[in-house]
Structure formats: structure tokens, C-alpha cells
Amino acid sequence: MMKTAQWVALAGAVLALLMLPWWAAARFYQADKVVWECHMAFEVTHISPEQALVRSMGNYSQFFYGGGSGIARLSGRNERPSDGVTAVSNVHRFIEFDYKQAGPYLKKDITHVSRRKGDTLSSDQYMAFSSVQGDEEYVQVFKLGPSTYAFGGLGMPGQVCEGRQGWLTPRVR
User: Fold this and answer.
1) In this predicted model, what pLDDT tens digit does every residue of 91-141 receive, in sequence order?
2) Across the chain, which distance is largest between two alpha carbons, in Å?
3) CA atoms of 161 and 68, how far apart (whole Å)
4) How confident is the model over 127-148, as pLDDT tens digits?
5) How far apart are CA 128 and CA 102, in angstroms?
6) pTM for this one?
7) Distance of alpha carbon 91 from alpha carbon 70, whole angstroms
8) Looking at 48-156, which runs of residues are DSSP E strands?
């Protein structure tokens, strides 16, 4: 009886030692894994407060990590026609953010925005999907399929997102 209990205890300890590294790797690796990503080409026409027409076009990509952080890449251009001449500004930005569930919405807190070489868009000009550090953005998430979602922001075109490893966080109702 005593011998059996010792063997069971030894087998349990060996099993725990074998499983511990796998558990630890899965637990810590998950935070850095891209849970889902969104890519879209866009073209948005906007009328500024001065009643000037602005046409924004480009590409916008977002990468959401399992730990509640993410990055976005915005590249494109603004065209502002005026008196037969079109002024063109380029934009190349990386946006870092934290995200979490906020009721039926996803709340993104912009933590850092960096401009890259060739970015000629001044900070007072409108650009679709452009963000400023400290902004809070709310988007609604709609489930379209097993690992496909659509994001909708107020006044912005919808984005369709594909999950790589399935939807881990946040939970969508």
C-alpha cells in the first residue's frame, strides 16, 4: 500500500515537471501572439470646417496582440484641390495602442504615434484613420464568421478582420 502511494506521488511529480515548461511557454507566449489582424485600402472624401474638399486614400492595417496591445500602420496621401491645383500630402505613421472590451464596443487607447520618412502631412490637416497620442477610440465589433469580424467606427468605413488563432480576447457578444 505504501509502495503504491509512493509510485503514484512520483508519477505525479514527473508528470508535473514534464507539463510545467509547456504550460509556462503557452502562458507567456500568448501575450505576444497576433490574435487577429485587419487590412484595408480606403478612400474617404471629407469636407473641412473651411468648406474645403479633402480626399484621403491609402492603406490601414492593424495587428492586435493577445495581451491587450496592438499596432497600426497608416500610409497614404491627402489631396486638397484648390483653384485648379491639387495640394498633395503624404502620410506614413505607426500607431501603438492598448485595447479592451467596453460593453459592446472595443476601446483603443493610443499610446504612441510615430511619423516615418516621407510623412509630409501637417498635424492640423485631416487624414482618415489618423490618431494622436492620448486619443481614445471606440469601435463596434460584429462577428461575421468563425474567425472573421468587422470593425465599425463612427463616420469611418468598415474594416473586415481575420483571426489567425481564433478570437481569444476580448469577448464579443
Assistant:
1) 999 999 999 887 777 888 999 999 999 899 887 777 777 788 898 888 877
2) 96
3) 16
4) 777 788 898 888 877 777 766 7
5) 23
6) 0.67
7) 20
8) 53-65, 69-82, 85-102, 105-115, 136-143, 148-152
